[in-house]
């Protein structure tokens, strides 16, 4: 597993983004400034294809608070959970390419076509990347009633009773991270999938699912309330938001270095000028003092790179994720 994890650090710093591939650049038509002169002309919808209360939902709603006044339009957040984000993303894939409907997805977006037999849209043609709004490490958490208080203790407990315990995920990205952990430590654990981070946390607190892999944003309130025990963060360095929580590498799992991305996409034929207009607005909000403080408080940091840079990032990550999923033998539900 050592060799399987090492490319993570070398190729990406493991900021596993979500999006379409290089074909999107060719698919977006040549546009002019005239196309953005009157944009937006109506309320903007941002679909969150996961449950309310999760990390993606929290970031999306905070972003909407800043975008509304900036764009002088109502920003509507709609939660459409299900099928690892596919149900909500499909709404955007089939929407009008007029720059008024977007989706906020996490890193599972590129993994879905690798493990889902029948996709209702083409991930690489029907969606166009706008930008990564923010990156954040993931965290392993277990119920405060579970005896293990560190990742080393937790791994020992897993080995003592194989096939007894489970790891929960809210989409294929966190499922992949859970599988990487089980694979690296040669553990026989059951994978349990949820429609969002909030219901996952509910079951982890109750002990229904032994450990959950999620964003720090999603788990933080329950950790602060003493109902969840944080075991380790997935990034190479400790997070300033939870400085006392060690990394997976500190727990002895070498080269384990992964962060989650929260990224925005539009319908695949949306004019490039509109993608760029939204990216600029997102960049302004993401790097505002209020948003930066909110993200830092939740263990995330702003990115909001230009559209072309985002597409370049996607080329690398699409190839990397495909290779990693095969090596980990990630299976769909």
The total beta strand count reads 11
Instruction: Report, as a whole number of angstroms, the end-to-end distance.
Output: 23 Å
Note the total helix count.
12
Average pLDDT rating: 87
The coarse overall form would be globular
**How many separate domains?**
2
Annotated CATH architecture of the largest domain: 3-Layer(aba) Sandwich
Q: Say which CATH homologous superfamily of the largest domain is assigned.
A: Bordetella uptake gene, domain 1
- Point out poorly predicted stretches: 1-31
Portion of residues within helices: 40-55%
Q: Tell me the quaternary state.
A: single chain
Which structural class do you get from the secondary structure elements? Answer: alpha/beta
Keywords: Signal
Family: Belongs to the UPF0065 (bug) family.
Signal peptide: 1-34
Pfam family, one: TctC
